[in-house]
Amino acid sequence: MKVDVLTCLALAVASLVAMVTGGRSSGRRKHKEVFLGENSKFKFGGRIDYKLKRQDSTKTLLIKSEQLLRIEEHDFAMRPGFGGAAIPVGIDVQVESIDSISEVNMDFTMTLYLRHYWKDERLAFPSRNNQSRTFDSRLVKKIWVPDVFFVHSKRSFIHDTTMENIMLRVYPDGNILYSVRVTVTALCSMDFSSFPLDTQNCSLELESYAYNENDLMLYWKNGNDSLRTDEIVLSQFFIEHFHASSGLAFYSSTGWYNRLFINFILRRHIFFFMLQTYFPTMLMVVLSWVSFWIDRRAVPARVSLGITTVLTMSTIITGVSSSMPQVSYVKAVDIYLWTSFLFVFLSVIEYAAVNYCTTLEEMRKMKRGKIPSTFNASQAMAFDGCFHDNDIELTPFSRIAPTLTSDPLTTPTQTPDIRPTEGTRLRRQRSVRENVDLLVSNSYMIDSYSRLAFPLSYLLFNTIYWSLYS
Questions:
Q1: CA-CA distance, 350 to 389, in Å (whole number)?
Q2: CA distances (Å), origin 111, targets 147, 161, 165, 204, 250
């Protein structure tokens, strides 16, 4: 009995000690939880932060997705169906904008949505409701995707604001949609022979870099409907047509490759160049004709007007050439500018001819004695560099051409007016020398003819020019 009583007392003491120890440890845990709670409230403004929990759950979901797609079980460095037929990869494109077109660099910049469609049975997964799964760029780096690149591209990049603009959508049967938003600057071989009345054909070309036609077959997903565009407005061009096409490209070392083309036709707006180039050029040419109505003896007025129009035309030609590529052929605008420059230059040459003929005429009159010997020509020209009618007595010119002598500066002898006999009709044709001498003797006729010849010639040139290029 004593042993049983001692045993019961020992058990009672042991249970009591256990209860005391458990109470202390639970108190410590409660105290620790309270301490952590206070710290979290102090740090996050009274709210409990569950960010770590969310990160852990995201990692758990990603691991589940990888397990669902069995990514670790396959070698995605190889294309789907390796060793078999070429894998078909469908492409469709939505053009968002054409950002710039540069004539100097002969290129264009385009932003577009590039979408790839193919089937990879290695990524097939069971699904009760047949719903697809969408992923971002993190999973793209772990699977096989087509290596499509832009032929003749100078620069390109995938947008990464606020995240990389990449979408991967996997369907339960293994069909995959891979979409990227990319901006590319590509070469456009332009022909400026009709500039600025030109139409340019540009194309953006897509091709697989590593896989030839035996491994990968690129095609437009929906034919001509695979290429869609938003409403695009350009400052200098009007987009006439967008269309898709396909072809093959051959490389001697690797073989044939499928190539897709995004073709578009650009027609230039002419109104800007009419205001900046054509209208000022026309005005300079018309301004050069004003000298034909100025007195031929007003040397400073006519010379300054001719030099001003020539220099202005040179400035216009230089400005147009600086904004264009240095091509080795003649452009339409060059033909117009240089022809207009020729008209302006000829108006200056015309006055040089008029001034020379006037000088010859006055020298003849001085030899004939029609100018007084007391007349001082230097005093008459002292103020404005020209003779005046009140200083020089100029007799009216005869309408009938005189007979020429051997010396053009000597006074020609006049032949008597002999009437032809009745019943005969004589017609004497002047020689070229007589016509030239007639112009020299009547220099004012050069201005009279120029007032009509220059505008008619320029009008004819404009008619031919605009009918050919417009």
A1: 22
A2: 19, 14, 12, 11, 28
Cα gap 34→32, rounded to integer Å: 5
Q: For 178-209, what is each residue's pLDDT tens digit?
A: 999 999 999 999 999 999 999 999 999 999 99
**Residue-wise over 354-367: b if at least 16 C-beta within 10 A, else e?**
bbebbebbbebeee
Beta bridge partners of 177: 117, 169
**If you write DSSP's letter for every residue of 89-139 in order, what string do you get?**
EEEEEEEEEEEEEETTTTEEEEEEEEEEEEE-GGG----SS---EEE-HHH
Query: What six digits make up the tokens of 210?
Result: 């590593």
What letter represents residue 23's amino acid? G
In our burial notation (b when 16+ CB lie closer than 10 A, e otherwise), range 398-418 reads eeeeeebeeeeeeeeeeeeee
CB-based contact 233:258 (threshold 8 Å): no
Q: What pLDDT sits at residue 42?
A: 40
Angle at 367 between CA 362 and CA 371, to 5 degrees: 60
| CA geometry: angle 244, 245, 247, nearest 5 deg | 155
- In SS3 terms, 431-444 reads as CHHHHHHHHHHCCH
pTM higher than 0.85: no
Residue with tokens 């409701």: 129
The Cα 468–Cα 462 span in angstroms is 10
Helix (H, G, I), strand (E, B) or coil at 216: strand
Query: How many other C-beta atoms lie within 10 A of the C-beta of residue 440?
Result: 19
Query: What six digits make up the tokens of 468?
Result: 């050919």
- The Cα 294–Cα 304 span in angstroms is 12
